[in-house]
Amino acid sequence: MMRIYILCLTSLLLACNQSPKLFRQIRAEQSGLYFSNNLSETPERNILNYEYMYNGGGVGIGDFNHDSLPDVYFTGNLVPNKLYLNKGNLQFEDITEAAGVSGNGKWCKGVSIVDINQDGWDDIYVCAAVLPDSNARKNILYINQGIDPKTGKPTFKDMAEAYGLDHQSNTHMATFFDYDNDGDLDVYLLINDLDGSYPNEFRPIRTDGSMPNTDKLLQNNWDSVKQHAVFVDVSAKAGVLIEGYGLGVNITDINMDGWKDIYVSNDYQSNNILYINNHDGTFTDQCAKYFKHTSKNAMGNDIADINNDGLMDIVEMDMMPSDRYRQKMMYNDISYQTYQNFARFGYMHQYARNTLQLNQGFVQTEKDTLPRAVFSEIGHFSGVTQTDWSWAPLLTDLDNDGLRDLILSNGIPKDVSDLDFMAYRNNAVARATIGEMMQQIPVIKVKKFVYRNTGLLQFEDMSKAWGMDFESFGAGMASADLDKDGDLDIVINNSNGPVTLLENRAEAQKEKQHFLRISLKAQKPNITALGAWISVYQGNRKQVYEFTHYRGYMSSIEPVAHFGLGQDTRIDSIVVIWPNNTKQIIQNPAIDQHLNIQQQAGAAIFTFNHDLTNPYFKEITRAAGLEYLDMQEDFIDFNIQKLIPHKLSQYGPSLAAGDINGDGLHDLIVGAGSPDYATIFFQQKNGQFNKQLLTNSKEDKYQDDAGLCLFDADADGDLDLYIASGGGENPPQHKAYADHFYLNNGKGQFTEVLNAVPDNRTTKSCVKANDFDGDGDLDLFIGGRFIPSRYPSPTSSILLRNDSKSGQIKFTDITQQAAPQLQQLGMVTDAIWSDADNDGKSELLITTEWGGIEIFAYANGRLKKQSTPLQKLTGWWNSISAADIDNDGDIDYVVGNYGNNGYIKASSTQPTSIYAKDFDQNGSFDAVMSHYHIGKLKGEVKEFPVAGRDDFLKEMTIMKERFPNYGSYAGASMEEIFSKETLKEAISLSAVNLETGWIENKGKLSFEWHALPAAAQFAPIYGSLCYDVNSDGWLDLILNGNEFSMAPALGRNDALNGLVLLGNGKTFTVMPPCNSGFYVGGNGKSLSALAVGNRLMITASQNNGPLKSFIAQTDYSIIPLKQDDKTVEITLFDGQKRKQEVYWGSGFLTQSANMLIKDKTVSSITIINNQGQKRTIQ
């Protein structure tokens, strides 16, 4: 009995010490919110005939009776709209009938709360759609008539026709804003008309306004006779002419120029639209210029600053489920032909998942007339991509910690995208009734999702912890402080169910968080201050809010700017940029209050400015004559092996820099894919470059240039060229994979020397030179990349000894005798010769795909693999470069990996793996990739194949008998598909780490791993350079990457825009592109450095894209290195010493010019050559 008492007392004490869940559902019996958007289907009206049947209704928040309590308005589809007055304490009264706002029997969609006549009373604009009678589709404008003295309640009058707002164009949502900066509120109408045509057909995009699903822009014009505004359609004049199936719209000044822009999320295949305001009453769509891809079935969106950097980020919803079963039941694999058609018909890349576009700030390239914002889509990294059939997102601070969290609505009563149902429908359409088919459609009622912003660009799923793990068919959603307690409550309009009212109990949490709520009152004709910017300053923290009520999906939130303040008890200032661009400052306001700010007359004009002055680098591609466009044949690797994760035929172009013609200036060679030859850019004394082909040969060129190596093979004092052949378009051992050697005549003219190198026909990844045997000439390591049609089988790498004599070039393959462990080593991606153990001799470090990082040491005539912890750090490694990052006198390493912003994740306990053999014994090599994923909601995490059923069966048709439908495959784990016996003889490889990072050298081949900052994990990293960019005595990193050649189902990894990371010897911080000036937004690959005068020039290559070159804006002392120089000791003024090595190839497909940079931090430099001789430069 005593034990029971103690246990009960302990449980009671623990419960008293815990905070309540953040949200509590308030039932209709308590709140009075009895609204339910019920929909019934008939043979004529159902989701098979009208796919938007269950798109739901909206929520509008406004104070309609001036009692300072937020009231709630719901739109219904087949039921009347409802208006509820807030009576306090989360209790509401239905006044719909008295107010006269039931929706007139129309199918109502979005609701926009606006003071249309500027009388201080909130009006209601209701969007109507769907019904065939055009009169039943006319939008409604309920103008608030004030309080009826008889009832004490507000009444409304429909005046849409008088105001020119009775549009009948299937309007889904309306958003009011001032597009022409004339002070009054115009309106953008989001039109979505399913006219019976197939919405995912590939065809030219209609941009002439002729399609019925083209949005409308209406201008506010004052009518002196009517004494109120009349709205006039100016769509054609303004350039709002692009078709789309719009489900989400938001107004934002995305380029921060003082003019509002329009972002539209479009469903189906239609492109999203970003109408950039041209300041002259017109707009230009620049969506493809700002974003590299978007959600495919884009629904609602929200725009807010998720990382408190003062820039607007964008989240939009799609339909990707969170569990593996639903994923494989909903999505067919995307064919590569579909991928190609996107480009052919001018469609953006689109993926069926939520997307989160992180604003990285402003850049201005050589081709930009004005600065523009650049974005990185980081949904996978942030953890918010998979929330099932989702509608409304809201980025708002739910726990008052100063960071904007993400809450969303989701669910649909009938899932017509279920693949088994689609197969049934296609077969049954001729013989089954509508009713019979309707019975086969799955019901999708899934848990709600809410995510806490961690402050690290990632979101933590708090659905269960915060009380949101309930199910409903949620649609429109709005936030408001309904109970006036300083936190945001949530209202959701559910289809076929009662509304959800969530009471936020942030004030009851154990740790008290502070808040500030701001209402604005501006001058007429925009007294609600729509479009204002509010900035709150707290010490070194800053929060910003762009004042608009129309957020999420078909809804209007409370017109109050809500700021969580966390533990801070003081605000330094508030800055308001009013819609007329005047600036007002409020100093040291009190916290934990609702602050009303009224616009002051005579305030100073605020000028929007993008500070792009004094960047560290400036693009000079065009100015320097370095224009070059890489163009490679679009070979479809997936036609050979359907389930591989990415193509292997598109990695170039490679780069190599050095003084090719002996004039003391650094030149540049750019490799090329078949059938083109490499190009040489010769530097002139004025810093310009002249272009010519490596050779004028008329013979067919079969190979793709992989690694390039400029080195003096014959000891005649000039740089010769070795080209390792790569690609994967040809069968194994094809002559296209033979390497080529070119002899330099000293003037930069090259002649191919036949039979100079062994006829090795492995497809290669790199070539790196080093005098590994110490005989005074440079030998070669050549990395084997893969075996065509047999990925991921290990292939052999090659060690070539330089046996050239008396001008006769000869390289001998000594792999079998001197380096047998290089045979069948794996799929090598990059390598570097470097003194890893600081013993004065170079080791060979090799990165592999689906493997670890290998180190080979040369001793007693043999190159032997060393045992290190790096072997177990298996990943999808792309590259390696070397530098003394921590100034401790030994060499550290920067290694590029896949990153953490992809569908595939990996860890030591849940690796991603690949299994390969001829599973179906049909003569082809099958590779099946797997990962760990939750099987079903609330189910187990298991190892599942990555591929969908269609691609899986195309690779192994024998499996069709085992998986006759999608459901049978969707639930099958790897161990259920393949027995242990089946996998016994298969190649089995795993990756446990996909992060890019740097390896700290601890001595004696002991190392410590450090992941680089989040921005370096946004995409695969290929090119990397280590220089002291900001001259503070510590080496910084310059990175190039992305991967556009992933399997279509996985999607492009395109979030990198080039990256500069500032180091301090231990950690790295991100330098925004506006400060670095380094912007490479394409399919970045190699990254090379050379000198132009007294400045450092960086050149980045992009696969199937232009070369980009940037020059440092600081003069240095550039010290050229000699052919026999080996290591360098750099002494800094603060007494630290940094080691540097001389490389003949460092980084992915890269060789930089051998040089030293002496800046203001360097006291002296000592250079040691191969004979141990030293020279010192002060």
Overview of the molecule:
The chain is mainly β and 1178 residues long. The chain folds into four domains: 32-318 and 353-515, Methylamine Dehydrogenase, Chain H (7 Propeller); 516-598, Immunoglobulin-like (Sandwich), CATH 2.60.40; 617-904 and 992-1177, Methylamine Dehydrogenase, Chain H (7 Propeller); 912-991, no CATH class. It has a five-stranded mixed β-sheet, with no helix packed on it. Strands 53, 54, 55, 56 and 57 form a five-stranded antiparallel β-sheet that branches. The protein has a four-stranded antiparallel β-sheet with strand order 1-32-31-30, with no helix packed on it. Residues 6-16 have low confidence and may be disordered.
Q: Report the mean per-residue pLDDT as an integer.
A: 95
Top-tier CATH class of the largest domain: Mainly Beta
Report the CATH superfamily of the largest domain: YVTN repeat-like/Quinoprotein amine dehydrogenase
Could you name the ranges where pLDDT drops below 50 across 5 or more consecutive residues?
A: 6-16
Q: How many beta strands in the DSSP annotation? A: 79
Percent of residues in helices comes to under 10%
Strand-pairing-aware structural class: mainly beta
CATH structural fold name of the largest domain: Methylamine Dehydrogenase, Chain H
Give the number of helices: 17
Total domain modules: 4
CATH architecture field of the largest domain? 7 Propeller
Which shape, going by the Cα principal axes?
globular
Distance between the termini: 85 Å
What would you report as the Rg, rounded to the nearest angstrom? 32 Å
Strand order of the largest sheet: 44-43-42-41-76
The largest pleated sheet is described as:
5 strands, mixed
Question: Beta-strand level of the residues, as a percent range?
Answer: 35-45%
